Each structure stands twice: as structure tokens, then as C-alpha cells.
Amino acid sequence: MPGHVHIVGGGLAGLSAAVELAGGSERVSVYEAGPACGGRARSYLDRQLGCRIDNGNHLLLSGNPAVYRYLGLIGAQDTLVGPKRPVFPFVDLADRLRWTLDLSRGRVPLWVLSKRRRVPGMRLAELRGLLALMEATPDMVVSDCLQPGSLARRLLEPFAISVLNTMPDTGSAALLGAVVKESLARGGRNCLPRFPAVGLSESFVDPALDHLSVLKAEVRTGSRVSAVEMADGGVAALHVGDERIALGPNDTVIMAVPAPVAASLLAGDLPGFSAPDEFESILNVHFLLPDAPVLTGGLAQARFIGVVGGISEWVFVKDRILSVTVSAANRYATRDLDELAAIIWNEVRAAIDPAATAPLPVAMPPLRIVREKRATFAATVQQDRLRPATRTMAPNLLLAGDWTATGLPATIEGAIRSGAAAAQAVHARRNTPGRPEQ
């Protein structure tokens, strides 16, 4: 018989599960502790800047299948934009060198044969590093695989830091290799850079909430699940404030909260439960310009640029907002934020000015610094082993989140996959078919 699926957490993992289940035979409820859904992938009105910004920057790829399935289900597949070619502009601040990585569209990597399209100074022998990543065993770190040279310093190491949010000397080579297999190894058609035309909420959250509303799914914001009541090896009830929500025999709970929250609710009561317990931060700095810069060349196509040799890693140009991402930011935890912002602004000017028709202001413009202290689990070999599967020892309790065993690092693609996997597990429990592939 159909049951009631209680989804705890309104981030992308929880929304993905809800979208997959809504409209079917199951009743669906989502409980989000905060005032808005979206988790780490949402937009908000920043009162300090007086404009709407994303709480973080996320660069997606055209070959992210779960992302595009999710967007297709909620009718938002056209809200992602990006260049028509798989191009990635870069600047090396130390060497004052600029280039655009221009990948081949097909699987045959012809780009490596062209000095104009590849990383400056790279040797073809360095490509062994990519092969080593794709063949990495679970106990290897990224630095075990890389060949010394320009390809590693100017592409693979920055790529590893941004994808894993963990430094290469501790980051899991197998997790990075999984991303390489799904992107570079499949050719440039799967590597077209994509990002929201307006904002993360406008692409991933608001259309999902509209879709769930039409399909009569319940979404409760400001509803923190404070306790999970266990009995007879399963979940008996959820406690939301003063409310006790009892589960029936056909009901299911999908726990789609961050790893620390899941641990606080389940550890000690759920046999065999484990979760990552070490985390890395991400620092985002949003600068508000008086006018939108007019760009040229590869930066005009891509609207972002990778930065090597500085604190900044990626600079995104969003109309009047220049938004900077610094991954694996635990290394800067003791630095003064004002000092960091001043250094980052000078790096932004060095990255943007040569590709703009007019220089950026010398004086630092109004800004907002967003530091997410527990942005992702630390993607180390040890932490990867702690990631749990979707199913648990409790038959009516499933797990979702980018910290679960998705086979990928903590990414939007991984989060959405985890929600879809939980939804499929609900269908499997009921012996009902899931949504067909799009």
C-alpha cells in the first residue's frame, strides 16, 4: 500500500528525492529547518550590498546527467547558460600568463596537440597523470598520480582543489578520477561550462518548489526535526518542535540533512551508522561594481576565469557582481578577512583588467564575504570510507546528501544523485516503478 515519505532536509538532495516521488502513489512531505530551501545552493537578497547573490559559486558541466534530469523534471533545463564551446580561461598570476583551455568536442583529445588550446608549458608525458587518476585505487591521494610540470600546476592541482574542496596531498585520487571519467574522458561535449542565468534558487529551488506545489507535495520550512524516535529496529516517529509525527507501517523517512546533523540525530540509535566527521570550508567574496564590466576574448565567452598562483581560484562575472571562490579554505582560517579581501581584490583586477575594455576601480568596492565553515566533507581517503550507503539497517530509513556514498565528491551532481537513489529505494521497497529516464 502507498505510504507517506518524510524527507528531512530541503537542500538539493531532499528536493531531488521529493521531485522524483511527487505525483506518484506516495504522499510526500519535506521538512526544512531553515526559512528557505536550497541548502548550499540557493540565492538570497543581501541587505549589505542591496542586491541578490548566490550563497556560493557552482560551476556545472553539460555532462552532469543527474543535474539535467532534475532540471528537466522541474521544467528548468533552459535556466543554465554558458559558452557554446568547452572553453576555460585561465590566468597565472605568478607568471603573468593568460590562456584559454579549449577542449575537443569529441572523445579524441586533439586539444593536447595544439599549443594554442592546451595548458602553456605542458609536456604530453604529463597526461599520464590523468590516466593515473582514472585508474587510482581508493587508498591513493591526488598528488600520488600527478606528474611534475605545468599541466599539474596550472590545471590539475587547481581542478582537484575546486572539485574536491581538499588539497591534493590529502584529497582522494579515486574521487577526482571519477569526475575525470565523467568529464574530460568523455570529450568536450560533456565539459561545456554551465551556471544559472539568474541565480541558484531561480534554477534549482524555486522551480522545484513550484513543481512540488502543483503535485500536492508538502514543503514545511522553519520545521526542524529535533529527534528521530526509533523502535523495533525502525523509525517510529519524528519530533518537529512540539509535534510528534508517528510513522505508519508503510511510511519511510529520507534523511537528507548535512552529515553533522544526521550524526546528531542517528548516531547511537542506528546500528552501523557512519558519516564523515572532518570538513573543509569555502570562502566566497562578492564585489559589487558601479557598472557591469565589458569583457573581451575568452572571458567574454565564458563569463568566468580560473586563477592560478594566488588566493583566488575562480572569478565569476555576474553583471555588476564579481564573485570569487576560494576552495579548501581551512588553510586561511586564521587570516584576517579584511586582509584577505584586499589581496583578493588586487588578484581580481589582475585577472579581469586585461580582458576588459576599461580597468576596474583601484579602490575596493562594496563587498560581502561568505565563509562556509563546513561547506563539504573533507574528501580524503579516510573520510570517503565513512560515507554511508542509501539504505540503512532500519528498513524505513534512507539517507541522502552529497556526503553519502555517491562515488563523487561533494557536488551538486552528487547531491541530486543521492536524492534520486533514495527515491528509487522507496519504489523498490514498495515494488513500484520509478520515473522513467528522461
Can you describe what's shown?
28% of the residues lie in helices and 24% in strands. With 438 residues, the protein is an alpha/beta fold. The chain has three domains: 142 residues, FAD/NAD(P)-binding domain; 143 residues, Polyamine Oxidase, Chain A, domain 2 (Alpha-Beta Complex), CATH 3.90.660; 70 residues, no CATH class. A seven-stranded mixed β-sheet has the order 8-7-16-17-18-15-19, with helices on both faces. α2 packs across α12. The two termini are 27 Å apart.
Architecture blueprint of SSEs:
Blueprint: E1 4-8, H1 12-21, E2 27-32, E3 43-46, E4 51-54, E5 60-61, H2 65-73, E6 80-81, E7 87-92, E8 97-102, H3 128-134, H4 142-145, H5 150-164, H6 173-182, E9 193-196, H7 200-214, E10 218-221, E11 225-231, E12 234-240, E13 243-246, E14 252-255, H8 259-266, E15 279-288, H9 297-302, E16 304-308, E17 314-318, E18 321-326, H10 337-352, E19 367-377, H11 381-384, E20 397-399, H12 412-430
Helix pairs in contact: 1-7, 1-12, 2-12, 3-6
